[in-house]
Amino acid sequence: MTLLIVQIPCLNEACTLPQTLADIPRDLPGIDKVEILVIDDGSMDGTAEVALAHGADHVVVNPVNKGLAYSFQRGLDACLARGADIIVNTDGDNQYRGADISRLVEPIVNGRADMVIGDRRTAEIAHFSPLKKRLQSLGTRFVARMADVPVRDAVSGFRAMTAKTARSLTVRSSFSYTTETLIQAGKKNFTVTSVPVRVNPVDRPSRLFRSMPQFLARSGQTMLRVYAMYEPLKLFLWAGLGLMGLGTLPVLRFLGNYLFGDGSGMVQSLVLGSVLFLMGTLSVMFSLIADLIAYNRQLLELTLERVRQIDDRQGLQAAESAESSAKRFPERRIRDELAELSSGFASSGTNG
């Protein structure tokens, strides 16, 4: 049986979440069962209760606000623990149309992709400013080149992935998961593709960033960190060679004046060139060390993926055992579910 779980990270989305949930189809080609999991990231407006009242199958509650990236990763872990074969991520503000989930999962169902990104076609969105459209286009090209994947909307949160892909991703950014997971997927040789999707107008401002400069700065920081993790040899080697090249120029200037001129007054060129050349040499050495560390990190990631796979199997077996027991003792199942939900809401209220 192929299980698809749609995960929805939410922060105070009680007003828009009912429509988002209502738009999610429960019958898709090639999918035997569709479930919905809502991650309530410390909401103060009763998002968790609204999710349960409007058809969510699972609700995970963060006692306090942890951020979008943390909630996304926690959602992946929760979906895998519940036996998901395919995971779709969407937003709780009803930006994306649920009917387009079929477009997202179609390449995965047919075995043509491991991850599918919903392309919002931002150039055609009327409420996007010209500056935002331009920055979106440049940023996507840059990420696509870094990750070596044919993506057309790098920061789109509407995406689908296989369980194997989700199990291999580890989000470490405290800001956003979009570009980081794309670079990881590309560097791990997963097949990534894009499909066009439709969007609904969103009136409220973004809760992820306060201004465009902040978004660009934090996104650039995340991309640089992730790229350095997966391509340290390229990054530090080229930086080192560049510094060595810059250092060579003032040294040649000093030598030229020393050999063919009076040789005085050019000591500063020698000092500057020597410092730059030394910095470049150290960077080249660091590139070799960083490459060895990156190789060790790849081994650790493989180990972590195997551990996650074992944990998911054990969790699924425990869930199936509990379900079997619940069928024989329905009163116990109802009592346990009510107790679990009550403890979760109590914890959220205490810490929130």
Could you give a short description of this structure?
The chain is an alpha/beta fold and 352 residues long.
Give a description of the structure.
The radius of gyration is 25 Å and the shape is elongated. With 352 residues, the chain is an alpha/beta fold. The mean pLDDT is 80. Strands 3-2-1-4-6-5-7 form a seven-stranded mixed β-sheet, sandwiched between helices. The chain has helices spanning 17-23, 47-53, 68-81, 101-109, 130-147, 163-168, 178-187, 212-230, 232-260, 267-328, 330-351; strands at residues 3-10, 33-41, 58-62, 86-89, 115-119, 159-162, 192-196. It folds into two domains: 3-212, Spore Coat Polysaccharide Biosynthesis Protein SpsA, Chain A (Alpha-Beta Complex); 232-330. Helix 2 (47-53) links the parallel strand 2 and strand 3 (58-62). It is built from eleven helices and seven strands.
